[in-house]
Amino acid sequence: MIATIKSEWRKSRFRPAFLVGAALIAGLTVLAFSANWYMATHPGSADHPVLLSSLYPVHFVANVLGAGFPLGAAMAIVLGAIFAGSEYSWGTLKTVLTQGPGRLTSWVGRVVVFVAWMGIMTVVLFVVGGAYSAVIALFQNQTISWPELETIAKGFGVIWLVFAVNGAIGMVLGVVIKQSAAALGIGLVYLLAVEVIAVRFIDSLSNGAFKWIGDLFVGQNAGALISSITPPPVAPSIGAEQALAVLAAYFVALLFIAGGLIRMRDVT
User: Fold this and answer.
1) pTM for the whole structure
2) Alpha carbon of 86 to those of 15, 177, 188, 206, 218: distances in Å?
3) Which of 18, 59, 130, 208 has its CA 20 to 30 A from that of 152?
């Protein structure tokens, strides 16, 4: 297993998709902080004013969480679809499996490497966000104070899990469709449109009698888990424990389904 993980890491560490993804998450963070900084210093430029103090380092976790979801989650779906689906397009999966490790061993190794990359993207998100918030504080001649280490650790873990779960959606679609382009397209449409419409429709039925079904969707639980780190004015209907359990269940189930398909189907 360790040898499989090492080989997958050597194969993937310079993969353009992951390097571009890390660069994009950094750029997304810079863009989000820059836009909020501009709106904070130009109050008449936004419908919802941004407080300049909310951009200082003590609040940087809340800001990077906002940058990481949902756009960062969408990027994770794209990377997952490319990571799993491109192996079929290139014909490399068949070559990998003929060299030694079994199908499930190879799949587990790929999952470990992918989750590690989601962790790297989370590190990039937090490092860039923290650095930019410090720049804002220095530019405004404010003292730099950071949030508690526990808050940073919780925020880091939450975004890492959100990235991993959404990336698993992309990986499953890549395995099911056996290509990356259609898989990432379907994944993005689901995250940014289908799930939103479905949840709104379900929540509107019978005066909210079926809201519990809408509360089982990935996006709803990701948002609730993020809200547990930076509580909004109105508390979400989903508790942090439930959100964590649902997301973990999605992650395990999705990767189990993909592994089963790889185990049973022709890989070409």
Assistant:
1) 0.90
2) 12, 11, 17, 44, 25
3) 18
